[in-house]
Amino acid sequence: MIFPDTPWPPVNDMIKLKPGTVTAVASLPGVGRSTFTLNMALHNALQGKRTLYTSSEIVGEELTSKAVTALYGIDLRHRETPLGGWESFSARTKQQVESIPLHLHEAIETTPEKAYTAGTVGADRKGQRLTLWFLDSLTHFSAFTTDGRHRDHEHGAEKAMAQLRRIAEQEQIAVVVTARAENEEDGQPLTLEHVEHAVATLSDQVLMLHREGAWWTSDVSDTATVDRLKPPHEGTAVLRFLPRLCRFAHFGINV
Question: What is the Cα–Cα distance from 158 to 71, expressed in whole angstroms?
């Protein structure tokens, strides 16, 4: 069986996106975990794997613009004019965009179960079975009770992660969720202790995405590292962050 994978060979050496599993991508704020997971979603959709991307971090037209920017390398967010002009670009890309089995879903629901139901209704295409669900981010869903009232965040995270596990196992899909990490000072190595307890315990795999200076300074490196914290893995993947193009790229491989 061929499992979903990522666009980056060194990251593929770290994780297996098997049906029935939950993989967490954690980072400090501002590192690029939304872009990282959107790149993964596009990569698999281009391979014909039906994919749902649910986001509370990037919404509305911005989410679509970011996906198209990543797909074609055209900076739509700053109105960069494609080669040949907009009319030619639209004619050239419209059919492909519509044919890709990727559904972008803006998260307005208050629980993962409700978000999954809403997203899969919108993603229904020609009877194809959903393979992958990306949920960005857990924070949105850990802030509410099942009736929409605010609650203790830690308890909410546990409930949300339990729902994700149940969905992954019952639907036999691979679920990827983004989560926030927090440390006390710049340069402090990030470990599982810096990730919410529910994420660390209820995920099958935990990746830590990191860029030097992110969150702590304005001088942020464009070099990103990816480490697997759970299960522990000795190797580190090194990627290059291209924010204007909404992409992470593997050094030595063209984007």
Answer: 34
Helix H or strand E segment including 36:
helix 33-46
Tell me which amino acid residue 41 is.
A
Residues of the chain with pLDDT under 50: 145-150, 253-255
Return the bridge partners of 133, or none: 52, 175
Tens digit of pLDDT for each residue in 33-66? 999 999 999 999 999 999 999 999 888 888 988 8
Positive or negative torsion for Cα 38, 40, 45, 46? positive
Pick the CATH number of 9-250 from 3.30.530.20, 3.40.50.300, 3.40.50.740, 3.50.30.80: 3.40.50.300
Q: Which two tokens stand for residue 73?
A: 């390398």
DSSP code per residue over 113-131 = HHHHHHHHHHT--TTPPP-
User: Could you give the CA distance from residue 89 to residue 81 in angstroms, rounded to a whole number?
Assistant: 9
Distance between CA atoms of residues 140 and 234, nearest Å: 32
Question: Tokens 């069986």 label which residue?
Answer: 1
Q: Report d(CA 237, CA 114) in Å as an integer.
A: 34
Strand partners, 240: 223, 249
Q: Which residue in the block uniquely carries the two structure tokens 């596009």?
A: 42
Domain ranges of the chain: 9-250
Phi and psi torsions of 120, nearest 5°: -70, -30
> Tokens standing for 219?
């001088």
